[in-house]
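quick one: heme C bound model?
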Amino acid sequence: MGFTRLVSRMLLLAVGVAACATVYRGAPVAPVPRLLFMGHVEGYVEPCGCSEGQLGGEARRAELLRRLRAAPGATLLVDAGNRFIATGPAGEIQAATLAAAGVAAGVAAINLGEDERHLGADFLSRDAGVRGLPWVHANSDAATPPWPGEVARTMRVDGQEVVITGVSGTGEGVGDPIPAVAKVAATVGRGGRLVVLFQGEVAAAEALARAVARIDLIVVADGRDHLDAQAHRVGTTLLVATGTDGKWLGELPLPRGPLSPALVAVHLLDEAIPDEPGAARLVRDYYRRLKEARVLTGPAPRPTVGGSFTGAEACRACHADAFDLWQATPHAQALATLTAQGKEGAPECVGCHTLGAGFTGGFVDATTTPERGGVQCESCHGVGSNHVDNPTAEYGRAGAQSCRSCHTAERSPRFDFSTYGPRIVH
Ligand code: HEC
Ligand code: HEC
Ligand code: HEC
Ligand code: HEC
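yep, here:
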């Protein structure tokens, strides 16, 4: 290589370095704020652990948020609604837990969804943490006591004005979302952004986008299970849908100008994300509180049809062999699985891990009815008292269909009667 060429190379290099320096030092790029979105959590505190590969949970979400927030630029976390689902004393513990998790996660706005409205203004006002969430809702009918929260929240993130409101497209106790949002839209300043948290169907959110063109973004808690944000545009409005159970968190940078579907990223809350210790403690406390409050003893049992539950012990007298074979299967230990984790007091767990939970003669709680723990004969063969009284009458045809009520696609994705059936033969 000749000397001149070498020099010109070096010059070029030097110019290149200088050019870079102007980009990175001379004129700093303003960080782009990011909207993080979720919705339709419906009481999903953590994956149950019934099988591997399950998504979601507060403890993973807290860790993911911590990581996403380590990147430059402000973040704004929003929840499109339907966070709470359980009623009664269990519901209060669930709501308090999910409210505390929301506060710890720094949620900036949460829509008051159909599920929340169903629980009632009184329920939402009782607990200070629940009441204090940054609820937004523009089309709720008036209630006594008043619904907590406000019509819209205005925030400034990295110099941008962002107005966030919430509406429900379905359910009782709400008015037409279109005029409600149009009213909020009229208050948004020039250059400001309007974000609508929408609980309801995507088609109804699209109708809203067509009617109120000023909306920049609609986050739809659609209640359908999907692992992508299904981002699409209606006019200049971007729509994203949240899926169910908080299985993933959406991320949308908010650069100046119109928002495009290509900007949207989805972060699955999978096993690769460890639990954040603070949120994991909240989840553990949740199960402890359910157990200590003995919420399972509260509701009156529902009646059964065709007799009542008698328990496996009553079958043993005449079906000793079947009993012994059954006792050696994991079914017989299904309550112990929960107890080992301190989760035997949770309504969302006992349904499939015990016999007849919530029904007359069925499981009440681990203290009152330990003998009804586990998946028992009658879980598959049906209530047995009539058969015990009259063994010759028609009873107890069981088959693949009797497994599916518990072995759901979500909890038992590998279930196949031809491989699972032989493992419980008795
Ligand atoms: C008093 C004795 C007795 C008790 C207690 C008893 N069974 Fe039976 N069971 C029988 C007899 C006898 C038959 C056979 C009836 C026939 O073939 O007509 C039978 C049949 C069955 C069958 C087969 C039905 C079929 O069509 O092949 C099932 C399933 C069954 N019992 C389940 C249970 C369960 C579950 C319990 C406890 C809730 C139970 N049994 C308690 C005596 C009993
Ligand atoms: C009432 C709910 C319920 C019903 C009905 C039910 N199961 Fe289960 N099954 C469970 C639970 C819960 C477990 C996990 C038990 C544990 O280890 O805690 C389980 C575990 C199993 C396992 C062991 C899986 C493993 O990985 O070790 C097999 C096999 C199985 N079930 C087969 C069946 C078949 C076949 C049917 C239908 C004939 C059926 N089950 C019906 C709830 C149910
Ligand atoms: C809809 C029914 C259902 C509900 C509700 C349910 N489970 Fe399960 N669970 C199952 C079934 C079915 C299996 C067995 C899955 C398999 O092996 O294919 C299982 C297995 C498990 C296992 C693994 C057992 C083992 O030894 O492999 C754990 C742990 C568990 N469940 C915990 C929970 C907890 C905690 C909850 C509540 C948050 C819960 N389950 C709620 C149906 C259910
Ligand atoms: C997980 C579901 C499940 C559980 C739990 C279960 N069974 Fe069964 N049982 C079945 C299925 C499936 C069959 C085979 C299909 C049929 O014959 O109905 C069967 C068959 C039977 C039969 C008829 C056997 C034959 O020769 O045809 C009897 C009797 C019986 N079970 C009694 C019991 C008793 C007693 C228990 C509890 C100790 C029990 N089962 C627990 C699902 C279950």
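The first strand starts at residue 34 and ends at 38.
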